Amino acid sequence: MKKLEKQKLYDSFVQLEADAKRMLARIDEMQTDLMQVLERDAELEIENQHLRERLQEIQAAADKKSERPKTAAAPRLSKSRANLKKLYKAGFHVCNQMYGSRLDDDEPCAFCLDVIYGERR
């Protein structure tokens, strides 16, 4: 191999090494950015959950103040079942079979109703 070819090969290798180092630095930057975004997302999820719970407390207090006589004693739903009921009333399935998909023409789903109001042991 001639000296010129060896020099070209060496220069190419040095350039490749420099490119790889720049790529690793960029990957590090992106990883740091991604971690910050994920942390912020988790914080916002927690904050949203606390705000939802606080809103439910405020609504429950307001409902208690303006409590009307009930025609029948309806069983109280747990917080999780109340959330499922809200999703169902918004037009989404909450049953295991079709969870998250839209209700067809707002037709009732026996499986969803069982999840919300059914007895659990």
From TrEMBL:
Residue ranges the record marks as coiled coil: 13-68
TM ranges: none
Domain of life of the native organism: Bacteria
Signal peptide annotation: none
Pfam families reported for this sequence: YabA
Keyword Isomerase among record annotations: no
Keywords: Coiled coil, Cytoplasm, DNA replication, DNA replication inhibitor, Metal-binding, Zinc
The keyword Phosphoprotein belongs to this UniProt entry's keyword annotation: no
UniProt GO BP: DNA replication; negative regulation of DNA replication
Gene Ontology MF term list: metal ion binding
The name this protein goes by in its record: Initiation-control protein
Annotated source species: Loigolactobacillus rennini DSM 20253
Lineage: Bacteria, Bacillati, Bacillota, Bacilli, Lactobacillales
